[in-house]
Amino acid sequence: MSYRILLVDDEPDILEFVGYNLNKEGYEVHTASNGREAVEKALRIKPHLILLDVMMPEMDGMETCEQIRSHAELSHTLIAFLTARSEDYSQIAGFDAGADDYITKPIKVKILVSRIKAMLKRIENNPVPAGIPGQSLTIDKERYIVIMDGREITMPRKEFNLLTLLYSKPQKVFSREEIFTSVWGNDVVVGDRTIDVHIRKLREKIGENHIVTVKGVGYKYED
Fold it and tell me: Which of 11, 54, 172, 200 has the greatest number of beta carbons closer than 10 A?
């Protein structure tokens, strides 16, 4: 399994050095140079682990951690502060903000890698179920594959994200506005028919009966 790690620090040298060594260990490394960028990237790539500095411009590490923890889809993401701030009160604040670990710099690369491996073992020992028991559809978020009645279905990213959203809360009616915001984002301009086209393609792949149109409101998933 290839773990995704988001490395957040405003010092380019740290991003380059730590990122290089984590890449050597086989991790998929993404970087961000400030808190706001970190939240945006975390929502997009869904990292398994975030290594977060405390002192950063625009949004400090504590606030960034709290922002990340406010998103349900990132509730299983591990967060560790990697910072030169070693004061007890700073560490306590970090854990209060929702961090899983607090690592102080400077730290030897081998020790850092060891700490990361120990944290990621929590995911191996406590896997997040990809599907809902008793249902015929399962979503594998690691491989971007949908499994329907034992059959694997590959989908373009937007179709996959749309289905994942609807499937996350069966029977809940998602408005068109909710879907646009969650799947395409507020800054992306799409046509009025975009959702309809994606819904039609999903129905072609998983069957007509699973995605129900609620006229004048939006769509919901039914098993």
Answer: 54
Residue 129 has pLDDT above 90, yes or no: no
Task: Residue 126: count other Cβ atoms within 10 Å of its Cβ.
Answer: 8
End-to-end CA distance of the chain: 29
* Alpha-carbon span 79 to 52, nearest angstrom: 7
Q: What's the pLDDT score for residue 1?
A: 59
List beta partners, residue 7. Answer: 31, 51
In this structure, are residues 194 and 156 in contact, taking their beta carbons and an 8 Å threshold?
no
Tell me how many degrees the CA angle 109-96-9 measures, rounded to the nearest 5. Answer: 40
pLDDT value at position 137?
82
- Pairwise pLDDT comparison (156 vs 172), residue with the higher score: 172
Q: How many Å apart are CA 146 and CA 113, to the nearest integer?
A: 33
pTM for this predicted structure: 0.56
Residue 130 has pLDDT above 60, yes or no: no
Q: Token match 């380019």: residue?
A: 12
Look up tokens 């808190």; give the residue: 35
How many Cβ atoms from other residues are within 10 Å of residue 159's Cβ?
Answer: 19
